[in-house]
Amino acid sequence: MSASRLPTEHLGEAAQAASASGRGALLMGRYRLVRRLGKGAFGTVWSARDERLDREVAVKVLDREHVVHARFEREARAAARLQHPAIVTLYEATVDDDGAYLVSELVRGRTLDRLLEQGMLSDREILEIGAALCEALDHAHAQGVVHRDVKPSNVLVPSRQARGAGLDRGLGESAKLTDFGVAHVVGATALTRTGDIVGTRAYMAPEQASGGEATAAADLYSLALVLYEALSGVNPQAGMGTGRRRGGGTLPPLRRQRRDVPRRLGAAIDTALRPQPAQRGGLPALRAALLHSLDQVDDTPGIVAPGWRGSQERTLARDTPGPEWAERRERPAPTLRMTGASAGAVGARAAGVMRVAWLGRALNAAAAGLGAAWLVTHLWMRPPLEPALVAVGAALVALAVPLAGAVLAAVALGVVALAGAAPAVVAKLGRRWWQRALLGAATLGALVVAGRLTHHDLYWLPARIPPSDPRALLALAAWALAAALAPLLRSGRFPLLDVLLAAAWSVALVIAVQASGAAPLVGELPGALLAAVIVGWGPALQIFDETRVLAGIHDDVA
Q1: Where are the domains positioned within the chain?
Q2: pLDDT digits (tens, 9 = 90+) for 72-81
Q3: Which of 221, 325, 344, 496 sits in a 20 to 30 Å window from 527, CA-based?
Q4: Predicted structure pTM score
Q5: Which are the catalytic amino acids?
């Protein structure tokens, strides 16, 4: 028997014997077997050397008895249509009397599931892998191929040495989709009976689990589920019963597991996991969200706690997970990426909060400088210092002590008839409730005193109710209470409710001050509007962002 006609059941023994003599078995007269990479239910995968073209390849050797199930023909026909950097390239497919052989490119790396288990991927790398898989599936669907078994063990991640490094590295090199053994070629003769289920249950779309036709929307669902699991450490579908999975129950949102995941990314993955295929959007929308979020996530590898992934189910077509390829280069022990508080994501979020905080400090300092300059010019006919110098000095003090600067900022707001927004400014600057309460009362007192000294009405008319009137204490208490409570009026989950609470807060403040007898107020309406904007700015921006994401997804569906 020639070396190219070795029965598959003897390949292992032949390879071992050949290795002892320094040479491996030769298949099809050109592929020299080097090392067995893995063995599954249908055959064995080897690394080999193409002696004709002098290149390394992977050879999948299928037992002849399994070829009659047409799996070999299905995989070869599907893979032959596809030429994409993120899909394992098929070089040759041959059947003889002893077995069947699929020759493809050799990917030096690991499977996605093993890398996740060992904590060797960062959030950024996961998003890059997801974007590459979006491109791969989009290409396959354009060629009329539906994979039907997208799961972590069918995703190969090339090692850093194999894919290179640097900014000029394409996303297509981040991952490679493999194992089209249960793929469906649109227009081809069905290879399974109607109602047969092919795929892996833990990653199936609801319509696929119920025996329906698996379309491109099913691949999108499976990919979104892979990303959900990679980012959260939990496959929400792995623990669901068969009946519930077929019924298409809605899965919990991704941000319930990872609050630090960017909102646009969470919304895109949640949309792709909707039970109805027509509501899932498309691969371009998911890819756009992944690319948009690259700079907002961490680049530190680690395991997402709690790291539970449920049981690893086998493909129902009795396919086993792909082979374990060459080991990725050893890296230092990974850090633990805690759910909802990963180091990089928290760092990125903290950086964003710091930028917003410094912007608020800068605006407060500028207003404090203007307020100080205005007071100097109205209290002295000939100011002892130049108003410009006073403004700069007050601004510097306000940068160092924002709470002190808020008093002068309130004066500047009063000059432009917006003093009613001062409690909102205090609420943003004070960290503790008692700080906000004291400063809120002090700010109103400073406004009244400054108004009397300069003979300007900055908020209320002192002639109607002088500061010495006992009723003035009611207004001071209203401002103190409003400043103390403003940051606490947040649901944290419903941004529209937060916006409504901000509006109700500003209206209640005006009513409370008027109830003390201080009416009419100067700039009553514009001050209340600005206060509502300052308190409700964050939730309003969240609503706008989520609306924009959903609008983009709707456009992709249309």
Answers
A1: 3-105, 109-333, 347-549
A2: 676 677 777 7
A3: 496
A4: 0.53
A5: 149
